[in-house]
Specification:
Distance between the termini: 95 Å
Number of domains: 2
Radius of gyration: 35 Å
Oligomer: single chain
Strand content: 5-15%
Shape: rod-shaped
Strand order of the largest sheet: 2-1-3-4
Number of helices: 5
Number of strands: 6
Structural class: alpha+beta
Helix content: 40-55%
Order of helices and strands: EEHEEEHHEHH
Length: about 160
């Protein structure tokens, strides 16, 4: 035998377990309904009683409440800024000057977008992409100047490639 507290906050019972199962099926009782088994002194919820677990519908998970005035969650890193850094690393390691240009452009655009969206982060990635791209371009210029200023160095390089 059980007693329950209905949605109207009134106490009902004593009722049998079979009657409770019928009320569950009818939707008159749910997982959160307060129930007191016969002989008990404390009220529990229907979900706390294992004998009704099989017939109780599972509660629908609720989304966390958004409180007015609470700051919005951070949006995360800018994908463009991360790609600027990755391409900057590749351009420097592989001596690909044209990727350096791509890295600089991506980094500059990412910085511009980050200024307009304060929730997003990643300005460090964007700056790293710009710097690495510039270093790749600088390295390309140094190599070109070295080859132009020293024809013997250029000839040695061609010979090394042919072997």
């Amino acid at each position: 035998m059980f007693k329950i507290i209905g949605a109207d906050q009134k106490e009902y019972g004593p009722i049998t377990a079979d009657q409770l199962r019928q009320w569950i099926a009818e939707g008159r009782v749910n997982t959160f309904t307060k129930v007191q088994p016969e002989g008990a002194t404390e009220w529990k919820t229907m979900g706390d009683l294992p004998e009704f677990a099989a017939v109780l519908p599972r509660p629908i998970p609720t989304l966390p409440a958004i409180h007015p005035g609470a700051p919005p969650p951070p949006a995360g890193n800018s994908a463009m800024a991360v790609w600027a850094m990755v391409i900057g690393i590749i351009s420097l390691l592989c001596c690909q000057w044209y990727l350096g240009i791509v890295s600089i452009i991506l980094g500059a655009v990412a910085l511009s977008q980050l200024k307009n969206n304060p929730r997003q982060t990643g300005s460090g990635f964007a700056i790293a992409g710009i710097v690495l791209g510039a270093l790749a371009l600088l390295l390309a210029v140094i190599v070109i100047v070295a080859f132009i200023s020293s024809p013997q160095l250029f000839q040695n390089f061609q010979n090394a490639l042919q072997q």
